[in-house]
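Study both lines:
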Amino acid sequence: LQEWCHSFGVRARTRDLFSQPFRRSGTIPATTLLATFRRGDYVDIKANPSVLKGLPHKFYHGKTGRVFNVTPHGIGVVVNK
């Protein structure tokens, strides 16, 4: 018998973590994309698997952090481990 290794990729073991609920997959509502954040706001990091660009690592899914930087295409969040 030969022992097989499991993968250590970025999205490894995220089948249930990144899965969308029933009838909730597809395009994102415009209100989600147009949300405004200011420096000092507390935010919950919730990864949306339908958008691959800017997807955070699985470790940060569900964590709460504080916004320290706001750019036109993204925000910087400080998370205490």
Q: What stands out?
A: The chain has a mean pLDDT of 91. The CA atoms of residues 16 and 49 lie 11 Å apart.
